[in-house]
Design goal:
single chain; mainly alpha; MetI-like fold; 74% helix
Length: 300
Amino acid sequence: MSTASVLYDVPGPRARLRNNVLTLLSAVVILGIGYLVVRGLADKGQFAGKLWEPFLRAEVWTGQIIPGLIATVQAALLSAVLALVFGMVFGLGRLSDHAWIRVPSGWVVEFFRAIPLLLLIFFVQFFPATASGYTVSVPAFAAVVIGLTLYNGSVLAEVFRAGVLAVPRGQSEAGFAIGLRKGGVMRLILLPQATTAMMPAIVSQMVVLLKDTALGWVIAYEELLNFGLKQIPANFGNLIPSAIVISLVYIAINMVLGYVAVRLERRSRRARRTAAAPVQAPAAIGVGGGSGMDAGGGGS
C-alpha cells in the first residue's frame, strides 16, 4: 500500500475533475487581479521609461541601493548571532530544574515576545535620554540591532525549548542510564538531535529578522528600505517603481537564504538521525498568553 493511500483517500475521477476546475478558476482569478494591478499602474504612468531609467544608472546602485543593502545585511547578521545566543541561553533557562532560573527566564521571554518590535526599537533609542534627563544619543544601528535581538531572541528561545522537548524522553533516560550528568545529556544527546528538528524554524525566523530590519527606516537608519522609499523617490519621483525594485532585491536575498537553509537542513539530516519531529516558530503573544511560565520546567 502506498504512503499516499495511508495518509489520505486517493481522489477519484470526479474529485480530480473538481480539483482541476478549482485550480483553473483560481489561476484565472489571480491572473485577472494581476492584470488589473498592471493596468492600473500603466494608466497612472508608472511604467514610463523616465521613472525606471534611474535604475539603469551605476551611481544609483553603487551610491544608494548597494550601501543600503550592506547596512541591512550588517544589522541582520549581527542581530541573528546575538538572537541565537539570547535564544539558547533563555531557552535552556526555561528548561532548568531550578525555579529561580526557570521562572525569570520565562518572564523575560514572554515579555519581549509580547512587545511589538517597532515599539521595542523606539524604546531602545529614546528611553535612555528620557529616563536620564540628559541628551543621550543611541545610534540607529544599535537601536535596530538591540530591538531585533530581544524580539527574535525571545522567539528563538521558544524554538530551542520546543526542539529539546521534541526529543523523546527515552533518549535522555538512556544518557542518564550510562552515567551522564544532565549537562552531558543536554550537550551530547539532546542538542545534537534537537538542532536538526529546529533548523526549519530557526531559518524561518532568520528570514523574518532580515525583513524586520526595514523597521529601522522609521528611526532614520539608512538601510535598504530607507534608500528605496525615501531617498531615491525624493531624487527621481518614482515611488512605485522604486518600491518594486527594492521588493525584488528583498525577494532575491530571501531566496538565497532559503536555498542555503534547505542545503543545511538536508546536510544536517544526512549527518545525523533524530527522533525529534520538526518544530515551528511560535507567534508573538500577549503577556500571560500562550505557554505558561513553568512550561517545560521539568526538562529532561
